[in-house]
């Protein structure tokens, strides 16, 4: 249990993770069918973002894979994604790691392993923090210019 919220893995239909809050207690359920550790960790961290940032907004969050990937969605989802990204890939550690090598898929894979994050969330964070001209699509295609 962390800050009053308990995390459990289990079956979920149509969602990567779900947060149910009752006052200062809550349960985050992460879809046990997600095979990739980095994706499970991001789903959990995303719901923790809702827990910490949005207690007055809703008592129930049901986040799909699209909510996790869509950084241009609703403000609330963007905030939860940003929280998750900073929790899993803290700027003070991630930015220097980005500068260890020239931009490439190989550096993204290395960073994903180092931070135990998905390639997608690592690519998005890299694009946000990089001084290089690059972009990531929701299909995890990373282009370097």
What would you note in describing this structure?
Helix 1 packs across helix 3 and helix 5 (about 105-115) packs across helix 6 (about 120-130). The protein has helices at about 35-55, 65-70, 75-90, 90-100, 105-115, 120-130, and strands spanning about 5-10, 15-20, 25-30, 60-65, 135, 140-145. The protein is an alpha+beta fold. A hairpin with a 2-residue loop joins strand 2 (about 15-20) and strand 3. It is elongated, with a radius of gyration of 15 Å. Strands 1-3-2-4 form a four-stranded mixed sheet. The protein has a two-stranded antiparallel sheet with strand order 5-6. It has six helices and six strands. The protein has two domains: about 5-90, Zincin-like (2-Layer Sandwich), CATH 3.30.2010; about 90-145.
Task: List the defining traits of the structure above.
alpha+beta; 145 residues; single chain; Zincin-like; four-stranded mixed β-sheet; 6 helices; 2 domains
Strand percentage lies at 15-25%
Measure the end-to-end span: 44 Å
Give the oligomeric state: single chain
Give the tally of structural domains.
2
Proportion in helices: 40-55%
Quick one: CATH class of the largest domain?
Alpha Beta
Helices, by number, come to 6
What is the fold-level CATH name, i.e. the topology of the largest domain? Zincin-like
Mean pLDDT: 82
């Amino acid at each position: 249990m962390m800050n009053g919220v308990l995390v459990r893995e289990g079956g979920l239909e149509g969602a990567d993770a779900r947060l149910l809050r009752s006052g200062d207690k809550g349960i985050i359920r992460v879809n046990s069918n997600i095979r990739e550790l980095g994706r499970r960790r991001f789903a959990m961290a995303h719901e923790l973002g809702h827990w910490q940032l949005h207690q007055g907004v809703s008592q129930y969050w049901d986040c799909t894979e699209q909510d996790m990937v869509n950084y241009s969605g609703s403000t609330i989802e963007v905030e939860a994604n940003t929280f998750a990204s900073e929790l899993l890939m803290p700027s003070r550690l991630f930015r220097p790691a980005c500068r260890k090598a020239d931009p490439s898929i190989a550096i993204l894979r290395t960073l994903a392993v180092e931070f135990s994050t998905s390639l997608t969330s690592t690519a998005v964070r890299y694009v946000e923090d990089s001084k290089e001209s690059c972009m990531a699509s929701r299909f995890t295609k990373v282009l370097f210019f």
